[in-house]
Amino acid sequence: MELIMLARRSLTRFFSKYKALDRAIKETTPEVRRKMPEPQLNFKPFTPTVYANYSAITTAKPKPVQLTKPYEVPDFIYVNYAQEEVKSPPGAKSVEVAFFGPVNAGKSSLLNALIGKNISAVSKKAFTTYAPITGISTDVEAGTQLVAHDLAGYSSFALTQQFSQYRRRSYDTLRKMQLNKILMVFDATKTPTLENLKVLEDFHRNFDSQNFSLIRVFNKMDICFNRRKLIEISQIYDSKLNFEKTFYVSAETGFGLDELKHYLFEQAEIKPWRFTPQASANQTEQESIYEIVKSCIYNRFYNNFPFQVQHEIIEFFVKDTHIRIGIQFNVPHERTKALFIGQRGVNMVYLRNEIQRLLAGRYGKEIEVHLHVHHGLKNGETNMLSDESAKKIELAELEQVKKDKSIAALLPQKKRK
């Protein structure tokens, strides 16, 4: 009997400790949860403005954006070194080239690799580059400057008629610039279509009399394993245009880039420099950040959804330890805003993390990114697609989202091996 009573007292003391511990947990858990709320996006009765902190996406009612005060903005964000006064050294040499070719051939990647800096947006989406971008590389010791223009490509898919203005813009650039060479950049893994060959014939008719030579560059050699097919592709292009020289490169791995860059510097002629040695692009730092954000948007969303999104840098503040950047996205409609934000802000989390990663590598500092989303395009501006086409695409994508009950239709699909 005494043993039974002893065991009962021991069990009572044992369980009383756990009861007290359980009571303490129940009392403290609500406070912890109040301190770390799970972000919820509720689109009714209002669509919240989304902005980012270091660790979480939070939501709030729309409110005025607090911009950086003018005297707090660093000077270099607005400085365009390419527009400063140029003092060429004695015997200065310069060579000016342009990249032209089909869409997604890697023209922008090739420009970034040759310049050594990300100045042009890169994505797998056609017409990521729709306005000419100029990159500059200067060898001060040799007194030689390379100026390269990244032009909009051409394509044969259904939207070509809507994007024909970009090809005309590229033609105008080729006529205005005093070019030494045109680098025709082709994908080494893709056989040209009949429509693409027609574009080359049109190019030959327009520029056959121009005083510049053509250089053929086969890009993406790191994924080109069928060399017999590459020979056939090369013969097809030879039947349409006359090339002075051919290079095989990979902008992804750097294969063949040194040889191409060395050849271009050798073609330099004695003439004054157009840009200062410090310039790497004919754009400000703000415009370079714009291109980086643009590549993140185009890589995140699928189909033509990114073409409906405008973005601008509204805040740039430099501190000793980090840089704070504010980015505002403008989308056409309320429903487009909901799709852009994503469920529980998943798209905002991706964009914030990707922008922080790219800018941290650029500036060597910790980056604090604030994202703001507003519906309604900026006054005086339009998106790339016409209003009628944009509405059709919006409705089609919205119906797909409702059908699948997911935004997966707007996101890039991973190819199965």
Instruction: Report the total helices.
Output: 10
Strand pairing plus helix content: what structural class? alpha/beta
Mean pLDDT: 75
Beta-strand residue percentage: 15-25%
- Helix and strand element order: HEEEHEEHEHEHEHEHEEHHEH
| Form type | elongated
The tally of strands reads: 12
Tell me the Rg in angstroms. 28 Å
Distance between the termini: 72 Å
Biggest β-sheet description: 7 strands, mixed
Measured as a percent range, the helix fraction is 25-40%
Low-confidence stretches: 29-67, 380-390
Structural summary, described in words:
The chain is 36% helix and 19% strand. The protein is built from ten helices and twelve strands. The strands form three sheets. Strands 3, 4, 5, 6, 7, 8 and 9 form a seven-stranded mixed sheet that branches. The protein has a three-stranded mixed sheet with strand order 10-11-12. The chain has a two-stranded antiparallel sheet with strand order 1-2. The N and C termini lie far apart (72 Å).
Strand and helix map with partners:
Layout: H1 2-35, E1 49-52, E2 57-60, E3 93-100, H2 107-115, E4 133-139, E5 144-150, H3 164-176, E6 181-187, H4 194-207, E7 213-219, H5 227-238, E8 245-248, H6 257-266, E9 269-270, H7 285-300, E10 310-318, E11 322-331, H8 334-341, H9 346-363, E12 366-375, H10 387-404
Parallel strand pairs: 3-5, 3-6, 6-7, 7-8, 11-12
Antiparallel strand pairs: 1-2, 3-9, 4-5, 10-11
